[in-house]
Amino acid sequence: MFVLARWCGFAMNATMVRSKVGVLSVVV
After folding, report:
1. DSSP string computed for 1-28
2. b (16+ CB within 10 A) / e for 9-27
3. What residues of the chain score a pLDDT lower than 50?
4. CA-to-CA distance for 5 and 28, rounded, in angstroms?
5. Predicted pLDDT of residue 25
6. Whole-model pTM?
7. Alpha-carbon Rg for the chain in angstroms
8. pLDDT of residue 17
9. Is the dihedral of CA 13, 14, 15, 21 positive or negative?
10. What domain of life does the UniProt record list for this protein's source (predicted)?
11. How far apart are the C-alpha atoms of 7 and 22, rounded to whole Å?
12. pLDDT value for 8
């Protein structure tokens, strides 16, 4: 259960970073 929650958090963080990079690339 802990590993699943940790993996979910990692996936969420990765998607957040990806969306941030996408927004930055669109702005730039």
Report:
1. -HHHHHHHHHHHHHHHHHHHHHHHHHH-
2. eeeeeeeeeeeeeeeeeee
3. none
4. 34
5. 86
6. 0.48
7. 12
8. 92
9. positive
10. Eukaryota
11. 22
12. 85
Specify the amino acid at residue 13: N
Per the structure block, which two tokens stand in for 24? 């930055």
Token look-up 């941030």 returns 20
- Compute the CA torsion angle 19, 10, 12, 4 (nearest 10 deg): 160
Written as one letter, the residue type at 8 is C
- The encoded tokens of residue 15 equal 């998607």
The label of the residue with tokens 């930055």 reads 24
